[in-house]
């Protein structure tokens, strides 16, 4: 199933007059409109291969029908998302759930749909069929050198798959940790992790990076060996310039000030990028912006300020990825909502009056500082984001277009009602 340009144009037709009025209204007050529109058009967010089916729950999994049965079908689904929103031009693969057996054919399919391959993700948090050593008690931190070696070799294999596809980053998340006090020697676990990562680092091609993700708990509930940004940054600093810290929004204890973490990692040149999602309680992997859109805006506010301070390109110089799960929504609709939420927060942060904010901070004018941030946050920037989509050939209302052309029903006809995509 492909969404054709004429589908999108026909769908846009019914919304265009209202959109034009709304766009002109908000655009009239945007100082640097051309620059904002260019930045919005250039800003893309990577879709993870594991989010195109339902899943991500340790309880029941309820297939929505027409789930992709293969890597090729996952790429086609990302093609649908990108055709509609023109903001999802890449896919992040998870190995071994999505092994590209025929790299040149996979690359050609992606290129046809205007897609490229972002970071590849390794998996040492599950045992695979026929695997010699178990990861029950960890992988890169394991007390047994043979287990560590197997996990290192897996990561090197993932780099090889990624290199064939034109990817240039390895994303590492470990479930390594302990469930009970006394189970683990923290220093030995950290040191083993460092040494394992050093072996992986040594295998990185010249232009590659390794992104070290952290998470405070789950599946281990007493300690996680890379539990927070400090532990990740410590490893990244010891590893070298190709290593940096990946921030997954759901991987923080409740009420953590994530925007402050982001600001300092950026200052140190050690922010790799993001796994976007939202959460109410823990690593809930909910749709981006569905629970706390103000926090998302505050994070983007720090990103724009911090990236501009270092002369970075917003669209290209960090990894922007979604890491979410869907159990009750159509995954494609959910991903469209997540990308929209990210672009809204980004657009709002581009509207922050930076000079006035600096002046307010310098004079300790706290009320004014809040006024400036909330002026931007409370601006309805949706017409700006929609206009950027329109100008690049996307849909004014991606979900409306997706529904009008009954994409899911067509996918069910093609693939069947009871298909289950690989993943958790
Ligand atoms: Mn993640």
Q: What does this molecule look like?
A:
This protein has 424 residues and is an alpha/beta fold. Helix content is 47%, strand content 9%. The protein contains 16 helices and eleven strands. It has a six-stranded parallel sheet, covered by helices on one side. A three-stranded parallel sheet has the order 1-2-3, with helices on one face. Strands 6-8 form a two-stranded antiparallel ribbon. Helix 6 links the parallel strand 4 and strand 5. The protein is globular. It starts with a helix and ends in a 9-residue tail after the last helix. The model has no long low-confidence stretch (mean pLDDT 96). It binds manganese (II) ion. Manganese (II) ion binds next to loops.
Sheet bearing the most strands, described?
A: 6 strands, parallel
Taken as a percent bin, the fraction of beta residues is 5-15%
Q: What kind of oligomer do you see?
A: single chain
DSSP E strands, number: 11
Gyration radius, rounded: 22 Å
Instruction: Please tell me the overall pLDDT.
Output: 96
> Overall 3D geometry?
globular
Give the proportion of residues in helices: 40-55%
What compounds sit in this structure?
manganese (II) ion
What class, by secondary structure content?
alpha/beta
**Total helix count?**
16
Low-confidence stretches: none
Q: State the end-to-end CA separation.
A: 25 Å
Spatially, the strands of the biggest sheet line up as 4-5-7-9-10-11
Following the backbone from N to C, one meets helices and strands in this order, namely: HHHEHEHEEHEEHEEHEHEHEHHHHHH
């Amino acid at each position: 199933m492909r969404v054709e340009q004429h589908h999108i144009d026909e769908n846009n037709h019914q919304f265009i007059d209202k959109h034009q009025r709304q766009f002109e209204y908000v655009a009239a007050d945007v100082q640097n409109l051309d620059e904002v529109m260019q930045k919005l058009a250039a800003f893309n967010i990577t879709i993870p291969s594991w989010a195109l089916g339902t899943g991500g729950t340790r309880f029941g999994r309820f297939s929505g029908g027409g789930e992709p049965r293969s890597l090729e079908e996952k790429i086609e689904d990302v093609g649908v998302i990108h055709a509609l929103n023109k903001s999802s031009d890449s896919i992040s693969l998870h190995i071994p759930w999505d092994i590209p057996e025929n790299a040149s054919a996979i690359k050609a399919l992606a290129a046809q749909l205007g897609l490229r391959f972002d970071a590849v993700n390794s998996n040492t948090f599950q045992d695979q069929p026929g695997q010699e050593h178990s990861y029950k008690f960890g992988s890169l931190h394991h007390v047994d050198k043979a287990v560590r070696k197997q996990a290192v070799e897996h990561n090197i294999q993932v780099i090889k798959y990624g290199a064939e596809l034109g990817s240039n980053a390895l994303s590492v998340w470990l479930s390594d940790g302990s469930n009970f006090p006394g189970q683990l020697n923290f220093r030995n676990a950290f040191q083993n992790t460092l040494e394992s990562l050093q072996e992986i680092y040594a295998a990185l091609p010249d232009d590659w990076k390794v992104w070290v993700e952290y998470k405070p708990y789950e599946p281990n509930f007493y300690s996680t060996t890379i539990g927070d940004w400090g532990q990740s940054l410590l490893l990244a600093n010891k590893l070298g310039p190709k290593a940096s810290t990946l921030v997954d929004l759901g991987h923080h204890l409740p009420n953590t000030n994530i925007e402050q973490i982001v600001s300092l990692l950026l200052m140190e040149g050690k922010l790799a990028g993001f796994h976007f999602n939202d959460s109410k309680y823990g690593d809930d992997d909910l749709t981006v912006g569905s629970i706390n859109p103000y926090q998302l805006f505050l994070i983007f506010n720090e990103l724009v300020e911090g990236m501009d301070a270092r002369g970075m390109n917003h669209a290209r110089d960090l990894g922007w990825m979604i890491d979410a799960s869907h159990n009750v929504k159509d995954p494609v609709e959910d991903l469209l909502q997540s990308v929209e939420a990210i672009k809204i927060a980004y657009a709002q942060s581009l509207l922050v009056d930076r000079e006035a904010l600096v002046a307010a901070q310098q004079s300790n004018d706290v009320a004014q500082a809040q006024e400036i941030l909330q002026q931007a946050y409370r601006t309805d920037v949706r017409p700006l984001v929609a206009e950027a989509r329109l100008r690049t050939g996307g849909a004014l209302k991606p979900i409306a277009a997706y529904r009008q052309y009954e994409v899911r029903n067509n996918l069910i006809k093609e693939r069947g009602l009871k298909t289950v995509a690989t993943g958790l």
